[in-house]
Amino acid sequence: MNKNKAAHKPETAIESERTDKAEARLLPDLRAAGLDEIAAVVRQLEQPAYRAQQIFDWIQKGIRSFADMTNLPADLRRRLAEEAELTTLEALKIQISKIDQTRKYLFGLADGEAIESVYMEHSYGTSGCISSQVGCAMSCSFCASTQGGLVRQLSAAEMIEQVNAMERDTGQPISRIDVMGSGEPLLNYANLSRFLERMHDPRGRNMSYRAFTVSTCGIIPGIEALGRDFPQVNLAISLHAPNDVIRQQLMPINRSYPVKELLAVCKAHADRTGRQLTYEYILIAGVNNKSEHAAELANRLAGSLCHVNLIFLNPVTESGYKPSSMAAARVFTELLAKKGVSSTIRKSMGADIDGACGQLRRSSVTGHKDIK
Ligand code: SAH
After folding, report:
1. 228-256 pLDDT tens trace
2. Is 257 in the pocket of ligand 1 (CB under 6 A)?
3. Which domains are delineated in the chain?
4. Which of 54, 113, 241, 253 could form a disulfide linkage to 109, CB 3.0–4.6 angstroms apart?
């Protein structure tokens, strides 16, 4: 087993640790609980059944604490506060972009760790970009999030709360959610699934699965699972290279899941779900942005149901890579178009606050300085 396959191991270890901790408590974390689970808690507390719906409704509203559940008797609120958990995130820092009003949040977690999330406003509505892990084990050479390695998985409750906390702060409902912040969501599949199911629950928040995009560095078993369990969730693949030689240099995970196998699985995914998938491709000057790379990429993707997002590299101090010029990006997109592969040069939001892709990191922990 090579290094990258071994990287899957910690997930199980960390998950069982968290489960042990949760089991040690009398009642579960209600933030990510379904109505049935809350009904069980209500029975355990020997309360009338209708209380379950009331508690559930408050939690769907993104309420901060049990104390705020004003239609419950004070005694029940106190018992819940003592015996159950309700994960709540508070922002340690909020940065607002002067360019486009994008907001980057640094949220503190109960164990002292910190994660970042981003809120964006677009012509079509609002979106949130959330993290799925504290840190990341994938070691992509261009990305800031991975530099301290993986610290731990985020729970479903912590994912839900990133959305709630941004809504509480902005007063705006978030209509689209990208699981594209720090971490590799498909290596935290159990918690990701629970997060998606909770957000989709027709009795609760009732968001369409189509409003979600999960971005992955290309974990093949995870892509297959997502296609099977959540065929309507949008899939974005961080491809970033047309061949194994370049991809391996940028993304060590390519040793486990090489380009040809990855693309075959992605094509099968698009066929099965009938949904167009997105390939993310960061243009890095001299590394993957030349005409020959565009031609090779176009040959590989031609004829498949996909769209390519061309992204300018956001500089991360440690990597030494430089973003592509706009001229090279234009040539790249035109070469793809000639083979019938659609692409857009994506505008980067929040670049002045390091809210842009690949710039999310545990700033407070790493003592990160802004990149000018
Ligand atoms: N692990 C997942 C999600 C996190 S990365 C994944 O790999 O997709 C989210 C997106 O940001 C990915 O497309 C990633 O490749 C991109 N990204 C990372 N570092 C970047 C950088 N320095 N500049 C631009 N995009 C970057």
Report:
1. 999 999 999 999 999 999 999 999 999 99
2. no
3. 3-86 (1.10.150.530), 90-353 (3.20.20.70)
4. 113
